[in-house]
């Protein structure tokens, strides 16, 4: 297993074929919008870590290339943040991409050599100016150093103007060839070291701000703002500062709980672990319902699905094989540990199952259509989700020492209610019928647990959940 989630395969000829979040329409609408701009444009695609920004950017980039809508290139900022100045590697990658494009290289090609030449001259000046401005004041440097700094500033202004004129010519040539701007996707900006991330933004604004070039930045705006504050101080108006460099910001729509849980499940190889089980859909349905019930953030959903994978991985290897019918209980218990730790702790210590049973009551038939069925040894047995979870909860609370006693008590209570004279029942017939169903489902679940090892198999589940709960993805 790799803890890093496997990347979704992207077919250049059909880039959105494996899109799990239905974002192709978004890419097409944003393409139409950005192609309508004649001037330069910096568009940020904003989303928290794990929101699928990189996958979206890659698919979008392939779509533009595949359909020949516009010339585009993707720059992975994080892979290049070792450089002394981001513009150095940025200019190099951009010019190489243009030169490697067969269509743009035809008929003499688009000249980019001068961009490299001027870039090598202007970057050291910019680097000195930016470092000088951050590390010391002019007063601290002294008059001679200040004069030198101003002289370099004037020289840098001249070099920047020359560079932008050359870049403008390249952009005009590309627009003439393609009738569209050059689209530059910048990915993983928020993962870079703060100085590199901020300097790259500054370079884009000061060096590459010319008509005919559109920048699309994949960012976590909150994380990027933190990078700004780490450089310029906690009191810095980071959001206002970023608005100087970003023209438009588009927040990726938050996928529905069901969509995102399914997406995360597909990114792990958990399905390979559970292949052949007839309760996978029920397990995923419970996971989706937990995400909705606890209003989990994207980060919390990622933790939920990672911990599910880690739990099932343990249960299918070192700790022995878990019966299929228990799979749907795992996401509930993992989520309970994450969001209702007090109820979870009381449950596994045998102090009380009532709080956890209350949490399970959200899984009503109306809220969760998928029934917990299949995997049971008894033919034609189906159990309502909330009562299945109650049975698991009662088995956990009883533990190995009191499991048989708890099973006997539920069995006696079920028989008592079933055989009770309707005339002696104080409630409605409907209430009696529902209580009978509840007791039978709880009893059936506990009997099934008993047939697969009783409280011992439950202990294995809890041990696996505990270890998974103590692991975090860094």
What features would you describe in this structure?
The protein is of the alpha/beta class. The chain has 2 domains: 228 residues, Rossmann fold, CATH 3.40.50; 213 residues. The chain contains 20 helices and 7 strands. The strands form 2 sheets. Strands 2-3-4-1-5 form a 5-stranded parallel sheet, with helices on both faces. A two-stranded antiparallel ribbon has the order 6-7. Strand 3, helix 8 and strand 4 form a beta-alpha-beta unit. Helix 8 packs across helix 9 and helix 11 crosses helix 14. The radius of gyration is 30 Å and the shape is elongated. About 5% of the residues have low confidence.
Q: Quick check: average pLDDT? A: 79
Structural class assignment: alpha/beta
Describe the main β-sheet briefly: 5 strands, parallel
Could you spell the SSE succession in H and E letters?
HEHEHHHHHEHEHHEHHHHHHHEEHHH
Features:
60% helix, 7 strands, 474 residues, Rossmann fold, five-stranded parallel sheet, alpha/beta, 7% strand
What's the layout of helices and strands?
Elements: H1 24-34, E1 41-46, H2 53-66, E2 72-76, H3 86-100, H4 102-105, H5 113-135, H6 138-141, H7 143-178, E3 182-187, H8 194-207, E4 213-219, H9 221-232, H10 238-243, E5 248-251, H11 257-267, H12 270-274, H13 280-293, H14 298-315, H15 329-339, H16 341-348, H17 354-360, E6 372-373, E7 382-383, H18 385-418, H19 429-451, H20 455-469
Parallel strand pairs: 1-4, 1-5, 2-3, 3-4
Antiparallel strand pairs: 6-7
Helix pairs in contact: 3-5, 5-7, 8-9, 11-13, 11-14, 13-15, 14-15, 14-20, 15-16, 15-20, 18-19, 18-20
């Amino acid at each position: 297993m790799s803890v890093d989630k496997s990347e979704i395969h992207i077919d250049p000829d059909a880039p959105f074929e494996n899109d799990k979040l239905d974002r192709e329409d978004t890419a097409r609408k944003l393409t139409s919008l950005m192609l309508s701009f004649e001037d330069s444009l910096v568009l940020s695609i904003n989303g928290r870590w794990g929101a699928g920004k990189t996958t979206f950017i890659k698919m979008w980039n392939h779509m533009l290339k595949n359909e020949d809508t516009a010339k585009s290139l993707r720059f992975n900022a994080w892979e290049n943040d070792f450089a002394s100045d981001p513009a150095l590697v940025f200019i190099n990658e951009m010019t190489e991409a243009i030169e490697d494009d067969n269509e743009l290289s035809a008929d003499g090609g688009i000249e980019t050599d001068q961009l490299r030449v001027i870039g090598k001259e202007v970057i050291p000046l910019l680097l000195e100016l930016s470092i000088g401005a951050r590390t010391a004041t002019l007063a601290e440097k002294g008059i001679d150093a200040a004069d030198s700094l101003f002289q370099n500033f004037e020289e840098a202004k001249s070099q920047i103007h020359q560079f932008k004129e050359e870049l403008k010519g390249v952009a005009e040539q590309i627009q003439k060839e393609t009738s569209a701007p050059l689209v530059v996707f910048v990915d993983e900006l928020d993962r870079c070291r703060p100085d590199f991330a901020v300097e790259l933004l500054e370079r884009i604004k000061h060096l590459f701000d010319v008509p005919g070039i559109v920048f699309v930045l994949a960012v976590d705006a909150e994380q990027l703002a933190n990078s700004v504050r780490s450089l310029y101080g906690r009191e810095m108006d980071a959001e206002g500062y970023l608005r100087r460099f970003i023209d438009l910001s588009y927040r990726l729509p938050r996928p529905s709980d069901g969509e995102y849980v399914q997406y995360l499940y597909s990114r792990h190889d958990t399905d390979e672990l559970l292949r052949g089980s007839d309760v996978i859909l029920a397990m995923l349905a419970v996971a989706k319902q937990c995400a909705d019930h606890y209003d989990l953030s994207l980060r919390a959903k990622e933790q939920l699905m990672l911990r599910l994978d880690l739990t099932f991985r343990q249960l299918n290897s070192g700790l022995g094989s878990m019966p299929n019918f228990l799979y749907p209980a795992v996401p509930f218990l993992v989520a309970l540990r994450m969001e209702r730790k007090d109820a979870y702790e009381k449950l596994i210590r045998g102090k009380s199952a009532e709080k956890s049973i209350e949490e399970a009551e959200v899984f009503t038939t109306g809220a969760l259509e998928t029934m917990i069925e299949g995997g049971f040894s008894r033919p034609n047995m189906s159990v309502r989700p909330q009562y299945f979870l109650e049975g698991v909860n009662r088995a956990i609370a009883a533990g190995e020492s009191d499991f048989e006693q708890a099973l006997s008590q539920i069995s006696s209570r079920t028989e008592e209610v079933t055989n009770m004279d309707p005339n002696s029942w104080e409630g409605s017939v409907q209430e009696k019928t529902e209580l009978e169903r509840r007791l039978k489902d709880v009893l059936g679940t506990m009997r099934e647990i008993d047939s697969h090892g009783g409280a011992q198999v439950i202990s294995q589940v809890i041990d696996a959940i505990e270890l998974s709960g103590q692991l975090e993805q860094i």
